[in-house]
Design the sequence.
C-alpha cells in the first residue's frame, strides 16, 4: 500500500479520488477550520491544522511518505486576481514545500499537484519544474476539464504528475451523465432576487434542467457572494435559483454520502466546494502513476 500525505487538503478531493486505489492517506494538512471539520466528517483518517510555512525537510522525512499530493492556494495565479505569483505571500507555504522536496534526504517516490489553468504560465510552475528535475523526477503536465470525461461541468485545471518511476499515459475515465442526475429539489431554494436577476440576467448562465445537453460553468469560492462569473444557476418553479452545495459537491464527484457539518453556513459550504477539485478529473490523473508494485 502506498502511503500518501495530502497538503492543502481542503475537503478531501484527493482522499476521495484514492478510494478503491492502492493508496492510503496517512496525513492531511490544512489551515482552514471549516475545511478540516468537513474533511473529518467524511473520512476515517483525520486532517490536522498545520502551517505549511513550517513544512521543512526534517518534517517531510519524518512522514516516511511515498506520495505527496498538494493543491496550493490558487489566488496568486488566477486571472481574476492580482497575479503576484511567487511575490504573493499566499505562495510562501508552497515555496517552503518545494524547499523541503529539494533538500530532504530521500524525496517521495510520487508527487502530484492541482491548480488553476493560469498556473501553467507562472513563475511558481517554473520553480516547481526545476525542483523536480533537479531531483530526477519524470514529469507529466495535463490540462483537464471534467466535461472531457462526460461530466456536465466546466472546470479546466492544471495537473502535474511526477514520479521517480516511469509515468504511464493518462487513461481518461468516462462517466457520462446528464446534469439533472446531480440535482435535488431543495425544500427552500436559494432564489436570485428579482432586482439582481433583472440587472445581471444577460450575463448569467441560467440552465433549463430539461435540456439534455445542459452543463454548468465553473463554480468558484465566491458563489452566492458574487453574482457574476462565479457559477451557473437553475430555473425552478419559483424563479431562478442557485445550485445547492450538495449538488455542486456531487458534480465534483463527492457522491451523495458526502456531508457538510451542520454548524457551517451555506456560504461557508459554497466557499469550501469552490476551492476544491474535481474528483472525476483526479481519478483520471492518478492513472499515470504505477501504483501496483507496493
Sequence:
Amino acid at each position: 500500500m502506498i502511503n500518501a500525505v495530502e497538503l492543502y487538503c481542503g475537503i478531501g478531493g484527493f482522499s476521495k479520488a484514492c478510494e478503491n486505489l492502492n493508496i492510503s492517506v496517512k496525513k492531511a494538512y490544512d489551515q482552514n477550520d471549516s475545511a478540516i471539520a468537513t474533511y473529518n466528517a467524511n473520512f476515517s483518517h483525520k486532517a490536522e491544522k498545520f502551517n505549511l510555512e513550517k513544512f521543512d525537510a526534517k518534517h517531510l522525512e519524518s512522514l516516511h511518505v511515498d506520495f505527496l499530493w498538494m493543491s496550493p492556494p490558487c489566488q496568486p495565479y488566477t486571472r481574476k486576481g492580482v497575479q503576484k505569483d511567487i511575490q504573493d505571500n499566499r505562495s510562501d507555504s508552497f515555496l517552503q514545500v518545494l524547499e523541503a522536496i529539494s533538500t530532504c534526504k530521500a524525496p517521495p517516490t510520487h508527487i502530484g499537484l492541482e491548480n488553476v489553468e493560469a498556473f501553467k504560465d507562472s513563475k511558481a510552475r517554473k520553480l516547481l519544474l526545476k525542483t523536480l528535475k533537479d531531483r530526477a523526477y519524470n514529469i507529466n503536465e495535463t490540462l483537464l476539464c471534467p466535461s472531457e470525461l462526460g461530466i456536465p461541468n466546466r472546470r479546466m485545471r492544471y495537473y502535474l504528475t511526477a514520479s521517480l518511476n516511469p509515468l504511464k499515459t493518462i487513461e481518461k475515465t468516462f462517466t457520462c451523465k446528464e446534469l439533472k442526475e446531480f440535482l435535488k429539489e431543495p425544500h427552500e431554494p436559494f432564489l436570485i432576487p428579482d432586482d439582481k436577476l433583472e440587472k445581471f440576467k444577460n450575463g448569467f448562465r441560467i440552465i433549463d434542467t430539461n435540456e439534455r445537453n445542459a452543463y454548468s460553468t465553473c463554480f468558484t469560492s465566491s458563489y452566492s457572494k458574487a453574482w457574476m462569473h462565479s457559477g451557473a444557476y437553475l430555473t425552478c418553479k419559483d424563479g431562478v435559483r442557485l445550485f445547492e452545495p450538495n449538488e455542486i459537491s456531487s458534480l465534483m464527484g463527492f457522491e451523495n454520502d458526502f456531508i457538510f457539518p451542520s454548524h457551517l453556513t451555506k456560504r461557508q459550504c459554497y466557499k469550501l466546494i469552490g476551492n476544491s477539485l474535481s474528483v472525476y478529473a483526479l481519478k483520471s490523473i492518478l492513472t499515470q502513476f504505477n501504483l501496483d508494485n507496493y
